[in-house]
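Posted in: Structural Biology > Protein-Ligand Complexes

Title: Requesting predicted complex, calcium ion in pocket

I'd be grateful if someone could produce the 3D structure tokens for the following input. Sequence and ligand are given below.
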Amino acid sequence: MSRRAESAGFVLPACVVVALSALFLASFPLVSHAGLAGEAEAIDADSNWRLDGNARSSSDAGHHGSLGEYPSWGHDRSSEHNSGEPLREDDILLHADCTPTLVHEMRLDETGGTTTADSVGGRTGTLHNGAQFGAGRIGNAIHLDGMNDHVSTAEADLRFDRSFTVAAWVRINERSGKTTAVSVDGAHTSKFRLGHVRDNQNRLGTWYFEMAESDSESATITKAASSPLESEVNTWVHLVGVYDADTGELWLYINGTRHGDGTLQNAWDADGGLQIGRGKSEGTPAEFWPGAVDDVRLYTGALTADHIETLFRSYRDSENPSVP
Ligand SMILES: [Ca+2]
Ligand SMILES: [Ca+2]
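-- Reply #1 --
Done. Output follows.
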């Protein structure tokens, strides 16, 4: 994703170009591409393009590449595209394959205090009830007592009725009942949960990624789950949950490998905050995580299997460089 186009003095990431072009072409319907229709929404008073993309924040909207891929957004005028011409259909199709956007990343590397930075977005996390920083998978992590400790943000800046991906390193110390490592609050129940459950049916416990069909205690839960190997208990495990809105499918990845899947029948958005170390049940925080959580990421879009394996392998293990 190195191609950029210059428009009105700004260098725009490729996916923005797609949407801008869709808007342009909507006015001049010489070329049409059904997959692009509807992406462009409006231009606000500050000339920021507000796109009907997945991200809520106007500053993030429509930017579907890794933020790190565009360090000079808005400054680099060396463009391969002439700003005087609209992109042609070939250009649009070339740019249409946009990678998902990392919207929030909680590295949890602080050494003390009661807040944690969002290294990508602007949502600072607040530590509650004794959650503490300690040794993590990369740098520090948040350590949670399984009783009431958790970390929360006020909101999460992406849509959960559209494709999204949640990723985290988790370590579980105990294995009883249902425990949630990462979730986002609805009003009554969690929008999604990434966690672990151990019950009579799953004696060794099961990693799961699940979504409720509606914001209701009685809602059907669609789950992508997989039983863990013994080696995955009391050690760091990389969990990724993917929701693909196009197909309704949920996927769970464990250490870079796709495992369970489920199909969601009803999509709904949630406007609560990101929760690390708990879920929500009957409108109340619940399912507290006994262990540690590190490097929590939320992306718009559904990361592919290749993306997730690459992400997993990108974490160096200082104690054992050959793993992963
Ligand atoms: Ca506590
Ligand atoms: Ca960390």
